[in-house]
Write a structure and sequence with these properties.
Structural class: mainly beta
Oligomer: single chain
Strand content: 15-25%
Number of strands: 2
Helix content: under 10%
Bound molecules: zinc ion
Low-confidence stretches: none
Largest sheet: 2 strands, antiparallel
Protein name: Molecular chaperone DnaJ
Distance between the termini: 19 Å
Length: 66
């Protein structure tokens, strides 16, 4: 799966989809979970900010459905 470059505006965490998000935070049927790429640390093994969760360590994903 390729990473889509984010064109969001910095400073606006609301209504901002991180690369690892499946939906906006608060979307019914979704929930916050640890980022699978950095295991919630927000940083990759080499110390750089995790692009998947943008350093938050958490992503929003759909609940259920397998
Ligand atoms: Zn991450």
């Amino acid at each position: 799966m390729s990473v889509t470059p984010s064109s969001g505006t910095p400073g606006k965490p609301e209504n901002h989809l991180k690369p690892g998000d499946e939906a906006l935070a608060g979307t019914p049927g979704t929930g916050e979970d640890l980022c699978p790429d950095c295991s919630g640390s927000g940083k990759l093994r080499d110390g750089t900010e995790c692009p998947t969760c943008e350093g938050s360590g958490r992503i929003t994903q759909g609940i259920g459905g397998g």
